[in-house]
Please model this.
Amino acid sequence: MLANVATAQEAPMQAVLLSQSDVITASSRRTIQPAIDAIANSGLEPAQQVLQAWKAKGMWLRLADGQFFRGEKSEAGTYILYDFDTGAAAGEYSKSDLKQIKPNSGIRGLIATALVQFQLLGPDPALREEALVAIERAPDPALLAPLRASIEQEPDAGLKARKERLALLLTISFDTDEAARLSAITQMSDDLGLDLRATLNPLVATRLDVFETPPEGLNIARTLTPGGKALAIDAAYDLLVKKGLAPPIVDSATMREALTAHIVDGHVGGQPVEQLDDTQKRAIAYAALADDGLVPALVLPADIQNSVGQFHFIEIYSEPSAAVTTATEAALSSIATKVNVSQAADLVLDAISLASIYFLAAIGLAITFGVMGVINMAHGEFIMMGAYTGYVVQQFIPNHTVSIIVAVPLAFAVTFAAGVAMERLVIRWLYNRPLETLLATFGISIVLQQLAKNIFGTQARPLTSPSWLDGAWVMNDVISISYIRIAIFVLALIFLGVFLFIMRHTRLGLETRAVTQNPLMAASMGINPNRVNMLTFGLGSGIAGIAGVAIGLFAKVTSEMGSDYIVQSFMTVVVGGVGNIWGALAGATMIGFLQKGIEWFNPTNTLAAQTYMIIFIIIFIQFRPRGIIALKGRAAGD
Model:
């Protein structure tokens, strides 16, 4: 007794271990919890070390005096023991002098749960976050108290907010205080997190049960009437059979086996065997056997109806508290409304994002097609050239921010020069010959694609965005949009502003508008239509190159990438109104919203969505052939 007192005074953790020695050495999951609680709740500094050593099978019992130590195997094959209280070495022993405490997987799980409270209050923020992740992955009612206790002492604001939210989730699931659960549900009713819905849904889950007289205290969701839409009579009777409240229905196979087993002198139940091919004869024979008590009685439709009518079929909530289920259903209803609104907002953002991409891809085509009437099937290849220009720049400038800043004007210069060369060498000879222009530019597009394949290969090339464009702007668990798409939207607005400035406040813009509205009158006023056409075609091609850099940041850069946008670009220009920048913007917006809307109704089939979109546009053009915003002037046919 004096030795135990001395141990308790000099080594308090050893005293705790000695008090639980029998339980620890028995190592049974059913009885071990008090020993774990005694160590974890001792308030002693070595408690965490003891639990960690125990969990890692590093705790040893010295047989000479029954004391516990942390042990490490030496190079000589012996074991060095270390005192839990002081950390000092307590000697070196052979394995025969010791007993290793080997917890099974169940005990290790209980120890891991007890260790969480120490990690939640540990000095290392990474370990505290790791503990939170562990609780989120495997919620346990035993973790609620230590989680709550750690909230006030948490210095990190972000981790504190996560702890508070996680504590509310655990309260909803595990707290025994109904008022606390109701308060937590009310506090989180505006939260759209998937983890909250995963916590609330089990509370309103129901199971179907049957009673002759329903007991008091059931949390009833609804009472079902057999034969209605919610519960068929056959399903109700199957439940009675499953519960042992009604005899099973005798099927044809069971009847055949029973009749075969009771054949006597060529007869069964008074019926000759050769007549049993008849369904009615088989039923008569089986009924005779049932009357003699040899087989179970047949269950007739009238018997089924009478049986189900004697019982109450009730859907019961898995959650016993009616107040909790009522609050949960109200919260889920509120959340569902907010989720629908958020999904609509997310759809709008996606549509705006897609519209900005289509606008970037089509703005150059709107200039060339609108001003010159040239059907440029190689427009997509100018987008491809711009994307590859960005890729080449990044091979020489590893800084992605600087490389993009350099790539944008360089892509404009490269594609501007290519557009001017194409206009001087090919397009100028094919004005007012739309079919020949289409065929010629289509051939040029094939040539440009093959050149890209010869230079860069067929594999997709990376055009890496700057790190500050990584990730997404997340407003809640439903609404999010990537920073790259936000940047493209801003770039589209910048292009719109620049184009409007050029068209309204520069000589080139004035001459372009004049040639667009009436080329003959513009020529008679001293404007050179050929020069305007050349610069306009170069400008449209240059803008396509810049669009290629922007699109390449999130799309694959390949020789065929231009073909992915040429159809949408032409649809954008035609639907919006040929030769009008506002028409291109309206067309891109309409097509973007239309495509996202169709995909929302049919999310698994994007090809069908594009087909429906093209059909709608064909119908739309029948009623408004000049587009949403029709161009006025001689060039428009006025």
Notes: The first strand starts at residue 59 and ends at 62.
